[in-house]
Structure formats: structure tokens, C-alpha cells
Amino acid sequence: MKVALVVLLMDVVIAFLAAIDGVVVVVLWGWFAVPLGLPTIGVAHAVGISVLVALVVAAPVPKSAEDDDEWEEIYRLVRISLYRALLALAVGYGAHLAMG
């Protein structure tokens, strides 16, 4: 039963993080691709693009030096994923402002 709960929780977390990445891609797409004449995209398309890019340029996430339990490791990976999304949005916003 515990394994099933962990798997279910991981599915929910992965879906949540994919949605966050999708929203970031939609915003960045609207700032940079739409002004070039490309059509707007929805979150579903953005999630697909995000997954495609992740498959092509997947970078391994370094394991923490400590021997964390599985919940600590999951929490660390979620933090890294959210940080990446926020950093991409912040850098993109700066570039968007610089474009005028």
C-alpha cells in the first residue's frame, strides 16, 4: 500500500511540475515567438514542447552529497525544478524588458 501511495504522489508531483513548466513556456513563447509571427500556444502544447526539449537535452541532476531519505530527495528535486522554472521566467522577463 505504501508503494502505491508513493507512486501516486510522484505522478501528481510530476504532473504539477509539468504544468508549471508549461505555463512558463507559454509566457516565454508569448514574449518571444508571437512577435515574430508564430501563433500562440496553449499549456498542453507548451508541456509537449517542454518534454521534447527535456528529452533532447536532458542534463542529469546531481545527487546530494548526504544520504537523504527518499522524501528528502523528492523534495530536493521539486525545489530544483521550481527554481529552474522561476529562473527561466526571470531571465526571460529581463530579456523581454530589454527588447522594449
From TrEMBL:
What keywords would UniProt list here?
Answer: Membrane, Transmembrane, Transmembrane helix
Transmembrane regions = 12-32, 38-61, 82-99
Q: In its keyword annotation, does this UniProt entry include Transmembrane helix?
A: yes
State the name under which the record lists this protein: Uncharacterized protein
> What are the leading ranks of the lineage?
unclassified sequences, metagenomes, ecological metagenomes
